[in-house]
Write a structure and sequence with these properties.
The chain is of the alpha/beta class. The protein contains eleven helices and ten strands. The protein folds into two domains: 9-94, Rossmann fold (3-Layer(aba) Sandwich); 99-281, N-(1-d-carboxylethyl)-l-norvaline Dehydrogenase, domain 2 (Orthogonal Bundle).
Length: 283
């Protein structure tokens, strides 16, 4: 990237989705590359040219992929931009392993549309306010698989870096599926959000170009599938969602439970990371 000059600052918001290995060639340059753990705002398009912010975060967590300036300088820049407290993470792997959207969005899509892919809905379901226990059951099963990835990474040398990393059930302060359902339904910022669908003459149908599909599968679930494969961990529930979506899209991301056609994804294997040594080295 010849346009990237010495001293440049490149930021990714959010900073997951395979950013850390897709920019690996830039690491040799005297530039700063950072990513934010999550987006600073929850917002939705209200009308052309206007958005409505329904929720904000008090603290924005940031990690470095490449660092060529003092942390305090970046904190000052970002706190001025967003008017928020900035926390610098010790290691970027904490952002790599942030799962929220990849699990939250895709589990909900699955339970809304599975075996109803061709159905016309009378209205757009409320994405979170109408969250149900079936979604929570799938969510918990996927989260359990992610936690197994965390535990295996601790076993191979990342224990100190991710010692405080927990699953999404803990993040949402829920022990049971019923508690999770109640929690998700009660979040004020989530309540007005509708499922993104295509309006037709007689109703609404699934939108295969929804960011919950075109982002959260290839640059979300499939990244965790890729890491799980490096760790030799089976992920049947994550696989179930990927199989469903790839059939809708005419893709073959996985075949027989293994990665197959991943050229359009953020999987680490797509960037030459094919074993644990490669993964450890780049992280």
């Amino acid at each position: 990237m010849p346009s990237v000059k010495k001293g440049s600052i490149i930021g990714f918001i959010p900073g997951n989705g395979g950013i850390e290995w897709s920019v690996k060639k830039l690491r040799i340059k005297d530039i700063t590359i950072f990513g934010m753990e999550r987006v600073p705002y929850i917002s939705r398009l209200k009308e052309y040219g206007k958005v409505e912010i329904t929720g904000t975060r008090d603290v924005l967590k940031v990690g470095f992929i490449n660092k060529n300036l003092d942390e305090q300088v970046l904190k000052s820049i970002l706190s001025t931009m967003f008017n928020k407290k900035i926390e610098i993470l010790k290691t970027y792997i904490l952002i790599t392993l942030t799962t929220s959207n990849a699990i939250l969005h895709t589990c909900r899509l699955y339970t809304i549309f599975y075996k109803k892919e061709n159905k016309l809905f009378e209205k757009e379901p409320l994405f979170y306010r109408e969250w149900d226990n079936n979604t929570s059951k799938l969510f918990k099963a996927c989260d359990d698989e992610i936690v197994r990835i965390y535990n295996k990474l601790r076993d191979i040398g990342f224990a100190e870096n991710i010692k405080n990393l927990t699953g999404l059930m803990d993040y949402y302060e829920s022990e049971t599926e019923e508690e999770l359902t109640e929690k998700i339904r009660s979040i004020e910022a989530f309540k007005p959000i509708k499922t993104q669908m295509i309006k037709c003459e007689d109703g609404y149908k699934i939108d295969l170009n929804s960011r919950y599909i075109i982002e959260d599968i290839p640059y979300g679930l499939l990244i965790f599938k890729g890491i799980a494969e490096l760790l030799m961990i089976n992920t049947p529930n994550i696989d179930k969602i990927i199989y469903w979506v790839q059939e809708l899209l005419g893709k073959k991301y996985i075949v027989d439970g293994k990665l197959y056609d991943i050229v359009d994804t953020g999987c680490p294997q797509n960037f030459g990371i094919n074993n644990l040594n490669d993964f450890i080295k780049i992280m």
